[in-house]
From TrEMBL:
Keyword Membrane recorded: yes
Source lineage: Eukaryota, Metazoa, Ecdysozoa, Arthropoda, Hexapoda
Top-level taxon of origin: Eukaryota
Transmembrane feature ranges: 247-264
Key words, A-Z: Membrane, Transmembrane, Transmembrane helix
Protein name as it appears in the record: Uncharacterized protein
Length: 267
C-alpha cells in the first residue's frame, strides 16, 4: 500500500504534463474547427496556376500505384483544421492510348496532315488516370502530360464516378502538379484558374505510400514547402487517422511504465 501511494502521484504528474503538452501543441487536431485568420481571401484572391519545373524529369513510374491520403490543404478556405474518420485512397496508372471518344476529333476519314498532327501529339504526350476512392465512392480523372514535363498533369476531360453525381461537386478542368515525390509520400497541387465563368480551385493533397501514422517532422516539412510557395496551410483536413495526439499519449504511457518499473525494482 505504501508503494502504491508513492507511485500514483508520479503517474498523475506525467499524465498531466502529457495532457497539457497535447493541448498546447496539438490542440487543433480535434474534431472541431479551429478559427484561423486565413492567409488568403477567396473573394479577392486571383488564382494563377504557376508551373513548378522541379519535377519536369520525374520518372512517372515512381508515382504510379496506390496512395493513402493524409492531409488536404484548402488554400482558399477559412474553415480551419478538421479531423475526419474517412480514409481516401488514390490509384494512378498510365494508359498507352488516349481515349478517342474524349480527346480530339476522330481520325476516321481525316486528311493526312490532321492524322499526322494527332499522331505527333500522342507521341509527345502520355495519358494518365487517377482514381479517387473514398469508401467505395469514386472520382476518376483523365490526364495528360508532356514527356519533358512529367510532373505537370493537365485535365482534358470531365471527371466520372459516383461522387461527381452529387449536387455540390464542381468539375475540375485545371492542372495537377507534383510538388513533392519521395519514396513514401506524394504531394499534389490541384489548381484551376477563374476563367470562362468557372470558379477558382486551389488545394493540395498529401499522400503516403503505406497506411498508418505519418511522422510529425514529415508533416512539418510539407507545411514549410507549401508556405514557401505562398500556399496557406491554415485550413486543412486530416484523414486516415493521421492525428498527432496518438504518439504523444503513447510516449506518455511509455514514460509512466518506465517510472513504475523503476520504482518497483527499487523496493
Amino acid at each position: 500500500m505504501e508503494l502504491f501511494y508513492r507511485v500514483v502521484p508520479w503517474m498523475f504528474l506525467f499524465t498531466s504534463i502529457a495532457a497539457e503538452y497535447i493541448v498546447y501543441d496539438f490542440g487543433h487536431y480535434t474534431n472541431h474547427t479551429v478559427n484561423y485568420t486565413s492567409e488568403v481571401d477567396n473573394e479577392t484572391t486571383t488564382v494563377i496556376c504557376a508551373r513548378d519545373h522541379l519535377y519536369d524529369g520525374l520518372d512517372i513510374r515512381k508515382v504510379l500505384g496506390k496512395w493513402y491520403a493524409r492531409e488536404l490543404y484548402l488554400h482558399l478556405s477559412k474553415e480551419g483544421v478538421n479531423e475526419f474518420n474517412s480514409c481516401p485512397q488514390v490509384t494512378i496508372w498510365q494508359e498507352e492510348k488516349f481515349p478517342t471518344t474524349t480527346f480530339g476529333p476522330s481520325t476516321e476519314n481525316q486528311l493526312f496532315h490532321v492524322q499526322h498532327i494527332n499522331a505527333k501529339f500522342r507521341h509527345e504526350y502520355r495519358h494518365l488516370r487517377l482514381l479517387w476512392d473514398e469508401a467505395g465512392q469514386t472520382i476518376e480523372y483523365s490526364l495528360y502530360f508532356k514527356n519533358d514535363s512529367a510532373g505537370y498533369w493537365q485535365v482534358f476531360n470531365g471527371q466520372n464516378g459516383t461522387l461527381t453525381a452529387r449536387p455540390t461537386y464542381q468539375q475540375f478542368s485545371g492542372t495537377i502538379q507534383v510538388l513533392k515525390a519521395v519514396n513514401d509520400h506524394l504531394l499534389l497541387n490541384f489548381c484551376q484558374d477563374q476563367v470562362n465563368g468557372k470558379s477558382a480551385q486551389l488545394y493540395s493533397v498529401l499522400f503516403s505510400r503505406e497506411p498508418g501514422f505519418m511522422e510529425r517532422w514529415e508533416l512539418d516539412s510539407v507545411h514549410s514547402l507549401l508556405q514557401n510557395k505562398k500556399l496557406s496551410v491554415a485550413s486543412r483536413r486530416l484523414v486516415c487517422g493521421n492525428s498527432a495526439t496518438k504518439p504523444i499519449f503513447s510516449i506518455a504511457s511509455s514514460i509512466i511504465f518506465v517510472i513504475f518499473t523503476f520504482v518497483i525494482k527499487s523496493y
